[in-house]
Amino acid sequence: MVAAREPASVSPPPLRLVAGADSPTDAALEPADRRLLDALGIAVYTTDVDGRLTYFNDAAVELWGRRPEIGQEWCGSWRLLWPDGRPMAHDACPMAVCLREGRTIRGSLAIAERPDGSRVVFEPFPSPLFDPDGVLIGGVNVLVDVTERQHAEEALAATAEALAMSSAARDDFLGLVSHELRTPVTTIYGNARLLLQRLDRLPNVEVEMVGDIAADAERLLAIVENLLLLSRLQAGVSPELEPQLLGHVVEREIATFRQRRPKRVVSFAAPGRHVVVEADRAYITLLIQNLLSNADKYGGSGPIEVILEDDPTEARVVVLDRGLGIEGISPEDLFTPFFRAKEAQKIAGGIGLGLPVCRRIAEAMGGRVWASPRKGGGSEFGFALPVSLEPTNE
C-alpha cells in the first residue's frame, strides 16, 4: 500500500483554484498542485461541494483497489465499513460529514473493502475547501493506511488478555494447592514435633528419622505458607495494617525459632523503648521467619544477630550472619522468584521463594527489603516498615 505511516497530524497542502473556473463546483486544481499530489505517495482525493469526485491520485487508487469514475459521490471506496464491521453508508462517511458541516474531521477510523474482498483500515483527514470569499466549494481528504497498526493493537490486546487469563489460572492453582497442602503438612509437622518431645517414652522410635520428618515437614510448610501468601498478594488481597509493637513480634518469633533450633545461637538487640509500626502481624511474622530461616540455612555455624533500630520515619530489622555471604551476587537476583545461587544450592534445599515473598510482603505494607555483604564475611538481610503515629493497646 502506498500510504503514509501514521503521521501525528496531516495537513493537506494549500490548494489553488484555476483562474477562470466557470463556477465553484467546477473548480479544479492548478497543474502544479496536481503534480504535487500525484507524486506524494499518500492517498488524496478532492470533491466538489456536492461530494462528487473531482480528483484522486494513484495512491488513492491503490488504497481503494479500484479506479472510480470522476463524479462518483463522496469517495472512491467500493464499500465502506465502520471499525466494528458494520456497513457504512457513503453519505455517512467522514468526507460527507465534513462537507455537510463545513469543518475538518479528525480522529475517526473506517474500513474500505476492495472489489477483491480484501480490506484496509484507514484514518481519514477530510477538510473543507473555500474560495477567496469564504464560500464552500468542495473538500480534500487524505487517507492514511493504519491496517498494520490495527493488527498490531489487536494482537497486543489478545496477548494481554491471554496473559491475564494465564496469570489468573496460575494464581488460582497456587491458592488451591497451598490450601490443600497446608492442613496435612501442618499435621505431619505437629506430630513430628510431638514425637521429638516424647522420644523417651517411645523407645522403638528412631530419633534421627523423626528429626528428618520434622525438618522436611517444616521446610514444606514454609514453602506452602509462602505460596499461599504470594497467591493472596497477586490476587490483590491487601494486608490489614494496624499499629504493632515490632520488638514484641520479633522477640516472639526468635523464641519460637530457638525452640525449633535449640543449638543455633540467636541474639537480639533493640532500643529501650517501644517501636510501633503500621503493619499486618501475620505478614511481619512471615518476614521474620523467612529471614531467620535464610540465615539458618546459609549462615554457617556461627551466631545469628538480629537488630531492631528506628528513626522518626521507619523501623528496621536487620538479620546478620557469618556464613556463605553474597559476594558477586546481585541483590536484585536474590529477590527474584526461584533464583538460587550455585553455592547456595550445594548447601541447602529450597525453591527460591522466601526472599521474593519478603519483598512482596514489605512492599505491600509500604516498606522495603535489602541484602548486602557483611564486612568481615557473611550477609546482612533486612526489612524496614513505616513508623506508626497511632497509639497501640499492647
Your description of this structure?
With 394 residues, this protein is an alpha+beta fold. It has three domains: 122 residues, PAS domain (Beta-Lactamase, 2-Layer Sandwich), CATH 3.30.450; 91 residues, Signal transduction histidine kinase, dimerisation/phosphotransfer (DHp) domain (Helix Hairpins, Orthogonal Bundle); 156 residues, Histidine kinase-like ATPase, C-terminal domain (Heat Shock Protein 90). It is built from ten helices and 15 strands. The strands form three sheets. Strands 1, 2, 3, 4, 5, 6, 7 and 8 form an eight-stranded antiparallel β-sheet that branches. Strands 10-12-13-15-14 form a five-stranded mixed β-sheet, covered by helices on one side. The radius of gyration is 36 Å and the shape is elongated. 30% of the residues are buried. The N terminus is likely disordered.
Could you write a compact summary of the structure shown?
The protein is α+β, with helices and mostly antiparallel strands.
What percentage of the residues does DSSP assign to strands (E)? 15-25%
End-to-end separation in angstroms reads 74 Å
Number of domains: 3
Radius of gyration: 36 Å
Average per-residue pLDDT, rounded, comes to 81
CATH class annotation of the largest domain: Alpha Beta
Structural class: alpha+beta
Largest sheet: 8 strands, antiparallel
Q: What level of helicity do the residues show?
A: 25-40%
CATH fold group of the largest domain: Heat Shock Protein 90
Name the shape in a single word.
Answer: elongated
User: What string gives the helices and strands in order?
Assistant: HEEHEEHEEEEHHEHEEHEEHHHEE
Number of alpha- plus pi-helical segments = 10
Q: Report low-confidence residues grouped into runs of 5 or more.
A: 1-27
